[in-house]
């Protein structure tokens, strides 16, 4: 049986960077994906941590995504930036547009960033949290691949379509949440299948459209449901509109990787909105957010979204990130070490 070791964030990030570089990513691309993947592992978001490295490699090896792509940034309006990721990953595309995007939001009070022709396989809160640390309210949405049946429909049309939100707090880590609009993320279904665990009732259907709690039945031609019935379904709909129709990316149901067996990175689009709260009517905004948080605590709320991740971050930054020894050995061999 494999034991567990603890590894420093920088060491894990460097290891993942070497793996991605060894599989065809240029250095800047490898660096930003490795960092986000290591952040997810450090903060305890295992569905989008090192477990995803095989998906990145599979998409690169299948020729589905271009690890060498150089994104093209377009300055289209006073409050709007577009990026064509050129069939590369989303993270380097947003990194390339970041400076212009932030400058526009500062100048005009708000700005949108529309990324298309891009592949996203990571957790979404690392995309928005840094903006809140710079004082912005940030929102992001991404559509993915058709794994989710719309409420009232028969077949999968939507992706697991996550939404992420971040806002500054006064003297505290930003208020952050992000989640899939499906009952579960596809990553959690894969992990449940690997660990031989059942899914919660009401999260998925099998290939015949019958309710199932068997993760393998969901993976083998079945589908997920949206969370919260028609309400989650409406959010998933909005994310298709914002992530694909608005950005110029593909709808989740248009992602066709049948010619690229093994590919695992959805080729769609990502929407970002930044708002400068200093242009709002409440100043200081972050203090106003604290008034709400105090009321939540007063009514007995002990856990705000994001707090588990911040606690994991504090702990694992001190003690190291736990990782199974056989998984670490495998990562080292993938890096050619
Ligand atoms: N790139 C992509 O296309 C996709 C990415 N994803 C990513 O997968 C990850 C997991 O998604 P998902 O499984 O839906 O999210 P989770 O259900 O794990 O978490 C959802 C959010 O709710 C918070 N939360 C969870 N439980 C509680 C609680 N009891 N009280 C208060 N807050 C709570 C979490 O905070 P905390 O983390 O602090 O617990 C988090 O912000 C996300 O990071 C998402 O971005 C998902 C789908 C597609
Ligand atoms: O877990 C998930 O649902 C996904 N993660 C990246 C694409 C879809």
TrEMBL record:
Oxidoreductase is among the record's keywords: yes
Name by which UniProt lists this protein: Lactate dehydrogenase
Family per record: Belongs to the LDH2/MDH2 oxidoreductase family.
InterPro entries: Mal/L-sulf/L-lact_DH-like_ah, Mal/L-sulf/L-lact_DH-like_NADP, Mal/L-sulfo/L-lacto_DH-like_sf, Malate/L-lactate_DH-like
Taxonomic lineage from the root: Bacteria, Pseudomonadati, Pseudomonadota, Alphaproteobacteria, Hyphomicrobiales
Organism whose genome encodes this protein: Devosia nitrariae
One protein family per Pfam: Ldh_2
Record keywords, A-Z: Oxidoreductase
